[in-house]
Amino acid sequence: RDRDNAKDIVQETFLRLWMKLDAVEEAKCRSYLLTTAYNLIVDRSRRRKYVTRYDGGHENILVVHQPNAGVKEVIDRALGTLTPTQRSLVLMRDLEGYSYQEMAEITGLDMTKVKVYLFRARKAMRARLGDLALVA
Question: How far apart are CA 62 and CA 72, in angstroms?
């Protein structure tokens, strides 16, 4: 299901670029693709209240010790309590390694808001995860 949704989003993203190819500058093509994909993910998340699972990704972002299935489930649930914007920012920064500037361009938020939303998301995850000490 996740794979099919991801394929649909990628296809829709490239279709939108193709339809606006004349209007998008070549230098801004990457930014256009990332922004469009981000917006499609947020729209889908809002419409379906769908929480994306990132198999194998959480061990690299949040877990200090070797994870087990229970830890992954706890992290997934904690990510699921965040707003779509917060969840996207946490994953962009911690999983994908985007800079604050790149995240601001992709989301359309200014860099200060990106930092504030990311701070609040991490604070919420710390509260949700309690004493597990899983959040950096």
Answer: 10
Segment 2-13, tens digit of pLDDT: 778 888 888 888
Tokens 């609040």 belong to residue = 120
The CATH-assigned architecture of domain 2-132 is Up-down Bundle (1.20)
- Residue 34 in 3-state DSSP? helix
Angstrom distance (rounded) from CA 99 to CA 97 = 7
Each domain of the chain, given as residue ranges in start order, spans 2-132
Q: What is the pTM for the complete model shown?
A: 0.53
- Decide: 71 and 134 in contact? Cβ < 8 Å: yes
H-helix or E-strand spanning residue 123: helix 111-129
Tell me the C-alpha to C-alpha distance, in Å, between residue 123 and each of 17, 72, 116, 118, 119: 36, 18, 10, 9, 6
